TrEMBL record:
It comes from the Bacteria. Keywords: DNA-binding, Transcription, Transcription regulation. Residues 165-263 form the HTH araC/xylS-type domain. SUPFAM superfamilies: Homeodomain-like. PROSITE patterns: HTH_ARAC_FAMILY_2. This is AraC-like DNA-binding protein.
Length: 291
C-alpha cells in the first residue's frame, strides 16, 4: 500500500452514478474509473451504511487494511469499521452503500459485520467471484448498475426481515439527522425503550443511541467537507459545543474537525452520492459525471 496520507488525484477519476430506474430503497451505488495508473491511499470515514467495494480492476487492484490486517480484492466494511484505509493500483471499482435495514436483508445478520472488515468472498462465498465476473464483462456502467441491482434484489439474507418498528426507527433517525431521543422513538412505535434497544441492536448490529450519534457525525462530516466552520457545524448538528463535536469526530474517525474537512474520501461525495449531500456544491473542475 502506498504511504499513509497519499491522496487520490480526483481529476483523474471518472465517476458514474445509476439512473433513478435502477435505484433500490436503502441502496446507493457509484462507479469509479481511474484514468491514470497512480496508486491511491485514502482513509474511509465512518458512514451510516455497510459498504461493499467491488474490485473490477485488472492487475493488482484494491488493497485495504486496518491495523493488523492487509488484504487485496473486493471487501465489505461494516458499520464503524475502525481505522480503515483503501487504495492500491485501482483501475475500476463499484462502491455500494447499504443502509443497515437493506444490509440485513442482503447480507444476513448485520451484527456480525458491525466493527469489522471482511472480504466479499467471506461474506458471499462463491457468489462473490461470479458477481465480479459479470460486472467486469458488462459493456457500460449502466449495465453494471443494472446487474448489481438485480443481484442485490434477488439475494436472500438468510434471516427474517427486520421488524417494521426497527425499520421505522432507523428511518426516523435518518430523517432527524441523528437528533432524536430513543425514548421518543420507542413511544412512536409502541414499544418499551428496553425492547427497542434489544431488537434494534440484534437486527441492525448497533444500538439506537449509537446509530443516532453516527448519523449526526455523518451530517457534521459532510458540512465540514463543504467548508462550514466547526463552531457553526456544532450548533447546526446539535452538539453542546465545539469541544463536544471534536470528541465525537475523534471517536468516529480518529481525526480532528480539520482532518475530516480535508478527508479525500469526502472530497467527491457531492458528485458520487448527490442524494445524500446536504449542501449543494458545483462539481469541481476536472471531474466528469458519467451515465
Amino acid at each position: 500500500m502506498p504511504p499513509a496520507g497519499t491522496p487520490p488525484d480526483w481529476t483523474a477519476v471518472d465517476i458514474a452514478v445509476p439512473a433513478p430506474s435502477v435505484r433500490l430503497p436503502g441502496v446507493a451505488m457509484a462507479g469509479f474509473r481511474q484514468r491514470l495508473p497512480a496508486p491511491m491511499d485514502i482513509a474511509m470515514v465512518a458512514h451510516p451504511s455497510v459498504t461493499l467495494l467491488i474490485d473490477l480492476s485488472d492487475g493488482e487492484g484494491i488493497v485495504y487494511g486496518t491495523p493488523g490486517l492487509r488484504r487485496r480484492g473486493s471487501f465489505v466494511a461494516g458499520l464503524l469499521p475502525g481505522d480503515l484505509r483503501a487504495g492500491g493500483q485501482v483501475g475500476e471499482c463499484l462502491q455500494i452503500r447499504l443502509g443497515p435495514v437493506a444490509a440485513a436483508a442482503v447480507l444476513g445478520p448485520s451484527a456480525e459485520l458491525t466493527g469489522t472488515v471482511a472480504s466479499l468472498e467471506d461474506v458471499w462465498g462463491r457468489d462473490a467471484a461470479r458477481v465480479e465476473d459479470r460486472l467486469r464483462a458488462a459493456a457500460s456502467w449502466d449495465e453494471r448498475f443494472t446487474i448489481a441491482a438485480d443481484v442485490l434484489g434477488r439475494r436472500p439474507g438468510g434471516r427474517t426481515p427486520v421488524d417494521p418498528e426497527v425499520a421505522r426507527t432507523w428511518l426516523r433517525t435518518l430523517a432527524g439527522r441523528g437528533r432524536v431521543r430513543v425514548d421518543g422513538l420507542a413511544g412512536e412505535v409502541g414499544w418499551s425503550r428496553k425492547r427497542l434497544w434489544s431488537r434494534f441492536r440484534a437486527q441492525l448490529g448497533i444500538t439506537p443511541k449509537r446509530a443516532a450519534r453516527l448519523v449526526r457525525f455523518d451530517r457534521a462530516a459532510y458540512l465540514l467537507a463543504a467548508g462550514h466552520a466547526a463552531a457553526g457545524v456544532a450548533a447546526e448538528c446539535g452538539y453542546a459545543d465545539q469541544s463536544h463535536l471534536h470528541r465525537e469526530i475523534r471517536t468516529f474517525s480518529g481525526l480532528t474537525p480539520a482532518g475530516v474537512a480535508a478527508a479525500p474520501w469526502l472530497a467527491i461525495d457531492d458528485v458520487a452520492w448527490p442524494a445524500s449531500w446536504p449542501t449543494r456544491i458545483p462539481a469541481r473542475n476536472g471531474e466528469r459525471l458519467l451515465r
